[in-house]
# Entry
Amino acid sequence: MTSLLDSSSRSLVFAVFSVFVVICLMLCVITGADEDDRALVRSDSRRLRSWQQGIAMGGDTTTVATVTVLVGMVATTGFDGLGVMLGSLVGVLLFLVLVVEPLRAHASLTAPDLLDARGSGGSAVRVAWGVVTLLVCFPLLVVQLVVVGNVAAALLGQPGARTGCIVVIGCAMTALAVSGGIRGTGVVMIAKSAIALPVLVVAAVLVLHRFGGDLGRLLDAAALGSGTGEAFLRPGGYTGDGWVGAVNRIGQTFGMTMATLAMPAVLMRAIATKSPRGARTVGRWMLGELALLYGALAVVGVGAAALAGGVLREAGPSAQVFTPLLLGRALDGGGLLVAALACVLFLTALAAVVDVTLAAGITLGRDVLAASGDRPAGRLDGTASRWSAALTGLAAAAVAVVCADWNLVVVSTLWLALCGAALAPVLLYALYWPGFTARGALWCLWGATAVSVAALAVSPYVSGTPTSILPGHDFRLWDVTIPGVVTVPAGFLLGWLGSVTDRRRRTGGAGRPSGVMHARAVRR
Amino acid sequence: MEFHEAERARLGVGLRVGVRIAVVWLVYVAGAALVPGVYGTAVLGGVSLGALAALVPLGVGLHGVVVYGRRADQVGAADDADDRRWA
# Structure
């Protein structure tokens, strides 16, 4: 993968990236958090407009793994990769209908405010939510930094530069998150989308043009190029066959949908919108952006199978992250498209990690650290969030350097599982079930986390195969690698069980049903 | 309409539409899990049945978002009218 870019294209990519970072830092300082902003989340004086916030939220849903690993998955396995994209889009639709407006109406700064307002909150729930959110955000940050470090080192043609790339991008993301707050990072997201979306759409149009606009011809060529034949067009390429494949497929698509409902950075942006009705407008912009983006990514993935399938097969699974670049090289021998796609990868990585860093920092400062003592108010709230974001970003960069050689697929699966099994059920119960109590929230958050970790611990990711984390041991109990079919129902079941067995609920004590309080807590 | 009743009505609209989208999506996912061979059948110029069937949950979802917006606005309008009457 060392010959993806010639030296002039390489210089162009890094020049564009450097200029982008500098411009974003300036924008973050100019538009960033004021001293009167609360926890870097809300400003009473200046806010992003609805369409701006919507585009930023769409960017939050798109990680660098979406542009690299997911496109590679479409190119090598076909239908299963498209299923993940579809699951994410349906998740956004459900988010718009079920979550965004009531969340904005009830939560003031972070999602546990919603639980407080609905009567199923408290300090313990706030800490539990914060810890699970960090367990989601931190692995997500580490995985993204490692992916972008590997891509950057390959583009430079110097594998030894990976550590330096991770450190540089880690420091840049921390600086952007700390200086920008919700408004500054929103501007970064918009700048990223303004560059990434047109480039990906152009790549998709070039692919379609190559096949005369005939989708059938493109799919036939992709089936041939991927080497899987007709299997490219049906489920099972990634998830496998038999009952294990069926369980994996349900876990993958349904789990992705549930995870999209409760991604911390997206929740943070939904809370920061102007009004509940404005949140709906924001959601529509988010949906439009993602529909366009996923459409383009799907065509890019299928086009990569058709035009660069042989190269992908020869290079092996580790080359999946370079799929867009390989397609760019197949489409445009001059190297301009490859350079543009490389810029897209860098900018997507930077923008995505910036918002996750901010979400993690705000959660750490406001929900985890502050809940154990006196909660800071006003200016101190913002300071706590700022320091927490800095700590989170730098720690994630350090951990990414240490684990850069590890197999991080299990970590990616873990954050998705936690998001879908622990955070999403609590959010939905708190909004729609008046009988949900603080005890139910705690059971759901801690219980679903334990079930998710246990389900992955006894899977082939950890032991029993040569690619496992512990290849010398074999304590797997099943061959399922995507356990959403177990973890998501377990999360809902634990939340229900914890609430209905709550004695204080029956006596009208502190664990009373949430519907009692919510009328007072709605914000306009 | 009392304030909490308006809020409850709005949540009820979201819940009904959300359950509809989720059920259609689950049926699609269950089909992909249980009969992958059928989903792989080429039906329209090389496009597989599974890819075509994906338009159903997407269509239901988009329709749901539109319906939700319209009904939530109706609830909001009724709430506002009630506020003015008692002002």
In short: The mean pLDDT of chain B is 84.
